[in-house]
Specification:
369 residues, alpha+beta, Rossmann fold, OB fold (Dihydrolipoamide Acetyltransferase, E2P), six-stranded mixed sheet, five-stranded antiparallel sheet, 10 helices, 35% strand
Length: 369
Amino acid sequence: MSHLIIQDLHKNFGELRALQGVDMAVEKGEFFALLGPSAAGKTTTLRAICGIEQADHGRILFDGADVTGAQVRGRDMAMVFQTFALYPHLTIFDNLAYPLRQAGMSKAEVGQRVGEVAEMLRLGHTLARKPGTASGGEQQRVAIGRALVRRPSLLLLDEPLTNLDAKLRFDTRAEFKRLHRELGMTIVYATPDELEALSMGQRIGLLRDGRIVQTGTPDELYTQPQDTYVAGMVGSPKVNLVPAVRRGADNAPAVELPFGAVENGPWANALKPFPVGSELIFGFRPHDVSPVTDLDGADDHGASIAAKVHLIEPLGDVVILDLLAGETALKMVLPEEQAVRYSVGDDVGVTLRVENTFVFARETGTAIS
């Protein structure tokens, strides 16, 4: 049995339906990322797991026991909030020691545990200081340490890097991965940042409007999105999504785009039952667009596109080229040394890696595969 199981979890705040049937399972020792935009239900899910919020419906099972109605103290979990919520009048040592003293531990045991956590989080030099004198990264580590010092079986992290600058977020992501590797602790990490989810989560649960729409490894969500929402949420730059129509013979379907036609994709067999004229959405990643010099012979499947460079976005070792194929806006990612040959206004022929493309039903957004 999974370490944490959530079954059909619902939570309303008046007329606001925050959770509308969340289902998820987290394995013991797993780093599970809960990804979703603002108001998707991430914080409410974590607060329900640890008992701060009581669910209106559904069950929460932890280590095989039903803890749905259990008090916070009885759940063996700890939560780190988006705000650091440190006690400003206490030293960092006392902030770390506070939950242990509340639990009635001896002075010697408190000192030992705080020392271990401070060493692990590289906070030893800060213990005599007040939180207000610490950097943002140090304050975040203190908040994490206050949770870890209890040695919980499950650590819940609610957007813990939101208040840090870009460099600190990068460094702290690496710290989280190190801590997870060293402690083997089960972690549920809520974030609106798909880069955080993809770089840290062993599996990701993608939330939308209080429901998890897909769960899988980062690679599974990137290469096998179940709908246009997942395809658009996972991957940077965002996936290209283009309106399309089902064409071709019944047993040899093709997809007609505003700028050409594509056939023999991985979706071909699944598309056979759809009648000619069915409205679709065609998707492909910017990394799967490549420049060509010979549009007539570029691709056996007809995925060749005449476009114009509309905008250039340098990102260090890679460059995003915003293209216009007729009236359709597309993005292509190239290595910097290849992109330097292009300027705004240039005509460019591009081709798609058809084997990596997606097709979705336009009305529902559901993947056809």
